[in-house]
Amino acid sequence: MIGCVATPNGNSGAITPAGPQLEVTPSNINFTSAVVGVQTSQTLKLTNEGGAALTVTGVVASGSGLSISGFSGSTLLSPGTSSNLTVLLTPKTAGAFTGSVAIMTNTPSVGASLPVTAQATAANKALTAGPASLSFGTVASGKTASQTLTLTNTGNDKVNITKVTVSGAGFTMTGWSSPVNLDSTQSLTLDVMFDSTTTGSHSGTLTVASTASGSITVPLSGTVGAEAPAAHSVGLSWDASTTASIAGYNVYRGGSQSGPFSRLNGSLVSGLNYTDGTVVGGDTYYYVTTAVDSHGDESPYSNWAKAVIP
Questions:
Q1: Which among 22, 80, 178, 309 has most CB atoms closer than 10 A?
Q2: Is the bond into 26 cis (omega within 30 degrees of 0)?
Q3: pLDDT value at residue 193
Q4: Domains of the chain, first to last
């Protein structure tokens, strides 16, 4: 008699083991960007690939700064089901790290042991400002000029910006209201304005206090000239935003319909109109507006409006 073996449909001849079988993904863990004192995490997926139920009875992390989250003490895995847990590493010292994660089950022959490796670097809290100084040039008395300053976390550890202050007559700032945490490579943008009514040269300083090493001091300068009568002006008006809790509006001007656009107003415009008295005869300008809510969030640009100055 010639015998034959039936294979399960769809498995191309693969036969599911009659008992439980544990598969762990990934099979090893490497923390590639570990920083001393900073917690990082990776997810482990436990899957029962066998044909009988399996209970995970214990998960043990070995190594200084290594721990487990998401395992409550006993996890039942029916055939074909999975469960996730998190491996956490907070390196204590810089250099190479080795550890392991052991997974125990109610079946002595079914378990896993995973190696854990990392190359931890020392924490580096660094904050930079760009540009390094702000010069507003000459501004007519009663007019406002604005520039953008960007604070960037250039280190590998979180930086807490605790305070930003501006000194000097005529210099003000928006974009800051309370302490801000920046992760590595994250940035904070500040708008700095100059609108003194006193003619002559002015200087000031923007100072940043943070948990980063070193201090940041940005020099500010500008000159106020006598106000010249404007030969032309552009009057703008727009429809009110339908978004709740609108705090005001910003008005931007550019030389083309695609920008770039520069903000004209210093403080938020509370109404639905604005007059641009800084235009020059013979030029063409494009205007857009944005709405800013009570949390400081700003909408995208509106449709542009074109003004041709005779």
A1: 22
A2: yes
A3: 95
A4: 22-120 (2.60.40.10), 127-225 (2.60.40.10), 234-308 (2.60.40.10)
